[in-house]
Design brief:
The chain has 121 residues and is mainly α. The chain has helices at 2-12, 20-23, 30-36, 38-41, 59-62, 65-74, 88-100, 111-120. The protein has a single domain (26-120), classed as Cytochrome c-like domain (Cytochrome Bc1 Complex, Chain D, domain 2, Orthogonal Bundle), CATH 1.10.760. The protein starts with a helix and ends with a helix.
C-alpha cells in the first residue's frame, strides 16, 4: 500500500512526466523544410557551394516574396516546383521558416500570398 501511495504522489508531483522542453514542437515549417529542402540546401541553410544555393543570408529569401514564391512553386534549374505537392498553408509555413531562420530577417508569408502566386503562375 505504501509503495502505491508513493508512486501516486510522484505522478501527481510531475516526477514521472517528461520535461516540457522534451515535448516542445519544432518551429512551424521546420519539419516541411527538413523533409523537402534540407537535403539540398542543408539543415543549416548554407547550401552546397557550386551545387545548391545558400538560403541563410540570401537576399532572394529575405526580400520581396514574389520571386521566391515563383521559384518554389514552379521550380528553377535543378530545383523542382512544389505547386502540386504542398498546400498554400504548408508553403507559407515552410517559407516563413526559411525567411526567419539562420539569422534571416524576412517577413512571414501568408497562405493568401501563396494562393495569389499560384494564380499568377
Amino acid at each position: 500500500m505504501y509503495r502505491n501511495t508513493t508512486f501516486a504522489a510522484l505522478v501527481l508531483a510531475g516526477a514521472a512526466l517528461p520535461a516540457a522542453s522534451a515535448l516542445a514542437a519544432p518551429p512551424p515549417g521546420k519539419t516541411l523544410y527538413d523533409d523537402n529542402c534540407a537535403a539540398c540546401h542543408q539543415a543549416s541553410g548554407k547550401g552546397v557551394k557550386g551545387a545548391y544555393p545558400a538560403l541563410a543570408g540570401a537576399p532572394l529569401v529575405q526580400g520581396d516574396a514574389k520571386p521566391l514564391l515563383s521559384i518554389v512553386l514552379n521550380g528553377k534549374n535543378e530545383m523542382p516546383g512544389f505547386k502540386d505537392d504542398l498546400t498554400d498553408a504548408d508553403l507559407a509555413g515552410l517559407l516563413t521558416y526559411a525567411r526567419t531562420s539562420w539569422g534571416n530577417k524576412g517577413k512571414a508569408i501568408t497562405p493568401a500570398e501563396v494562393a495569389a502566386a499560384r494564380r499568377r503562375k
